[in-house]
Every structure is written in structure tokens, then in C-alpha cells.
Write a sequence for this structure.
């Protein structure tokens, strides 16, 4: 998404992440994090005399919790050095069920992924949620007015694992529901039976 946006947005573009502060043409790289919650983003912008609610549109990508949890587990089992920490240790030492019982997600257990979509408990009016499962269609529907012609995602982010429908049983489904209750209760995803 970042690569597509940097290439396809017109005018000045700001990118936050684990970068030194630098400018490359119309793109400015600012020290920060790559995956800020909305509270973190609001703080980041407030420090720069900007207001998150003043943006015309905020886009955030959401993924089916059943698929997201399994993908995260498969990714952590790659044992990449940049992912060292408690969640990776649990993923490497335990099966998927035990991982769901014990592992934090971005340092939080249970995961608080709702913080990436809500601010002070509510979804901002200027927030548009894109679904990972329909990403190309959602980009076309919601983001294309902001992108130059010929935009495209440079690659699809796919973890190597079985389809989640082939992995889950009633117990693992309950664990994912408990870890991601907000997504189901807000109606973004329906619970499935396995």
C-alpha cells in the first residue's frame, strides 16, 4: 500500500516509519512507526499542528480475523530477526491453538486491533475501511479518486499457510472470536462455524 500511495498520490507525500528524517523529491520520510493506532496518529499530527478529523479521508485496511491470526502465526514461524519478541517465541515453540491462547498481537493480549480503526471508542466520520479480502475492488471504489491513472498494488501480500477454513475447529474459532470480539460485534465480519 505504501509503495502504491507514494507512486500514485499527487503533490507532497509524507511517510512515517523507522526512517531517518529525509526528503526525496516530493516524498518526505518522517521518523515514526509504520502501524500507528488512531490515537498514535492523532498525537503525531497534533505535534505538527494538524488534526486527524481535518483530513478529507482516512483509509485503513482490515482483514478477516480468522485469516489474519493464522497469517500472523505463519509469518512469525519464519523466525525473522526483526520479529524477535514474545509472540514470535510462542509461535516457534507452540502449535496454533496455544499461540492463540498466549500470544500478544503488537504487544497487546488480547489484541486491541480496534484501536487502529476507532478513536476514543468511535470510528471517525472521515474513516473508510478497506477489506483485505476485497482490496483491489475497494481501492478502485474508494481510493481511485485520490490516485493518478495507472495505479496498482505492486504485489499481493500472501503468507504461505493453509486456508483458514481447513485449520479451524470450534475451539480455535472461539479463541479467535475472544481475541477479536470487536470486529464481530461491530458487524465487520460474521462468526463462522467450523
Amino acid at each position: 500500500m505504501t509503495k502504491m500511495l507514494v507512486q500514485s498520490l499527487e503533490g507532497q507525500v509524507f511517510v512515517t516509519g523507522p526512517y531517518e528524517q529525509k526528503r526525496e523529491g516530493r516524498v518526505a520520510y518522517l521518523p515514526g512507526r509504520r502501524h500507528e493506532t488512531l490515537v498514535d496518529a492523532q498525537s503525531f499530527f497534533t505535534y505538527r499542528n494538524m488534526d486527524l478529523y481535518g483530513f478529507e479521508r482516512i483509509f485503513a485496511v482490515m482483514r478477516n480475523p480468522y485469516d489474519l491470526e493464522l497469517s500472523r502465526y505463519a509469518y512469525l514461524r519464519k523466525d525473522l530477526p526483526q520479529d524477535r519478541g514474545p509472540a514470535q517465541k510462542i509461535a516457534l515453540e507452540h502449535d496454533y491453538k496455544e499461540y492463540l491462547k498466549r500470544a500478544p498481537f503488537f504487544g497487546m493480549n488480547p489484541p486491541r486491533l480496534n484501536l487502529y480503526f476507532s478513536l476514543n471508542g468511535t470510528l471517525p466520520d472521515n474513516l473508510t475501511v478497506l477489506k483485505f479480502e476485497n482490496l483491489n475492488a475497494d481501492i478502485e471504489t474508494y481510493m481511485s479518486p485520490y490516485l493518478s491513472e495507472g495505479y496498482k498494488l505492486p504485489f499481493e501480500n500472501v503468507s504461505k499457510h493453509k486456508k483458514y477454513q481447513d485449520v479451524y475447529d470450534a475451539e480455535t474459532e472461539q479463541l479467535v472470536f475472544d481475541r477479536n470480539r470487536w470486529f464481530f460485534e461491530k458487524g465487520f465480519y460474521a462468526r463462522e462455524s467450523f
